[in-house]
């Protein structure tokens, strides 16, 4: 009970709202765009990298952004149980 009250005071929602505002939609669009761009830039940088260790780290960074992109999409399409794969 105490944690639930703390979550409400901090503005943490237990369930997403049923309706997205225009501002929410624009923010989600921005998040998708930022992750997609970071994913593409990581792929480009890794493809031009000569150092194998650095290339592996850049690839991990790109994969992280790809996971974030897919997680955001999964939240937007809760009925879609198949996980889409995004190519760079």
How would you characterize this protein structure?
With 88 residues, this protein is mainly alpha-helical. It has helices at residues 2-10, 22-47, 52-76. It is elongated. The model is unreliable at 84-88 (pLDDT under 50).
Question: Concise description?
Answer:
This protein is mostly helical and 88 residues long.
Spell the H/E element sequence. Answer: HHH
Average pLDDT confidence is: 84
- The 3D shape can be described as elongated
Which structural class best describes the helix and strand composition?
mainly alpha
Biggest sheet character: none
Helical percent range?
Answer: 55-70%
Distance between the termini: 45 Å
Proportion of residues in extended strands:
under 5%
- Radius of gyration (CA) equals 17 Å
Number of helices: 3
Low-confidence stretches: 84-88
Extended strand count: 0
Question: Which secondary structure elements does this structure contain, and how are they paired or packed?
Answer:
Elements: H1 2-10, H2 22-47, H3 52-76
Helix pairs in contact: 2-3
